[in-house]
């Protein structure tokens, strides 16, 4: 969950995007910008370095992003750099995404399995979760061989764990309690 500063910046950006009817475009571009900073932490560090002049930082931002992202989003990056808030870009992206999802009736669901799910099973799970939540589902899948089998589904703060590892641990705990 993003802090209040990140949320306010994200909400301001969202309001501009909504005025321009470009909420999804801003979401996609903000995701790309966040990923650039995630992959290039030295770039972000440079923007946070007080000994580098603001003008130099803004020139670098222009060279990297101009023509690749919406002009307002570039100006937003320059503003948060000027205000010393660019280090919160990942939180701002998360807050923007959460707001976008809320406004558009979208829910993010994570599914963890021991082996990659087939396309048919992925679509079936997506449809089931959509029926349960009454919202459009964005499904993120990952593989964790340590769960042995079954599936772990995370929906917001809730987790539904039908993994073989969890069931074996429950049986072991019951046996330990029975013997003790």
Radius of gyration: 21 Å
Which parts are unreliable, with pLDDT below 50 for 5 consecutive residues or more?
none
Helix content: 55-70%
Number of discrete helical segments: 8
What number is the mean pLDDT? 93
Question: Pairing-aware structural class of the strands and helices?
Answer: alpha+beta
Q: First CA to last CA: what distance?
A: 42 Å
Biggest sheet architecture: 4 strands, mixed
Q: Order of strands across the biggest sheet?
A: 2-1-3-4
* Strands, total number: 4
Shape: elongated
Indicate the proportion of strand residues: 5-15%
The helix-strand sequence is HHHHHHEHEEEH
What does this structure look like?
With 180 residues, the chain is of the alpha+beta class. Helices cover 62% and strands 14% of the residues. The protein contains eight helices and four strands. The protein has helices at residues 4-19, 23-39, 41-48, 54-65, 71-82, 89-103, 119-133, 164-179; strands at residues 106-113, 136-143, 151-155, 158-161. A four-stranded mixed sheet has the order 2-1-3-4. Helix 4 (54-65) runs antiparallel to helix 5 (71-82). The radius of gyration is 21 Å and the shape is elongated. 20% of the residues are buried.
Give a nutshell description of this structure.
A four-stranded mixed sheet has the order 2-1-3-4.
Key traits:
single chain, 180 residues, alpha+beta, four-stranded mixed sheet, 8 helices, elongated
């Amino acid at each position: 969950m993003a802090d209040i500063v990140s949320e306010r910046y994200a909400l301001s950006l969202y309001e501009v995007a909504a005025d321009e009817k470009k909420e999804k475009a801003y979401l996609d571009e903000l995701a790309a910008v966040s990923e650039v900073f995630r992959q290039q932490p030295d770039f972000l560090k440079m923007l946070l370095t007080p000994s580098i002049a603001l003008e130099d930082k803004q020139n670098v931002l222009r060279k990297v992003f101009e023509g690749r992202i919406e002009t307002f989003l570039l100006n937003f990056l320059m503003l948060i750099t000027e205000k010393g808030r660019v280090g919160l870009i990942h939180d701002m992206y998360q807050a923007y995404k959460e707001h976008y999802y809320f406004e558009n009736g979208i829910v993010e669901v994570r599914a963890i399995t021991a082996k990659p799910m087939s396309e048919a099973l992925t679509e079936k799970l997506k449809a089931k979760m959509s029926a349960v939540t009454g919202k459009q589902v964005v499904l993120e899948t990952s593989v964790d061989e340590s769960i042995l089998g079954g599936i772990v589904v995370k929906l917001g703060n809730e987790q539904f764990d039908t993994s073989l590892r969890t069931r074996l641990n429950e049986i072991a705990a019951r046996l330990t309690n029975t013997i003790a």
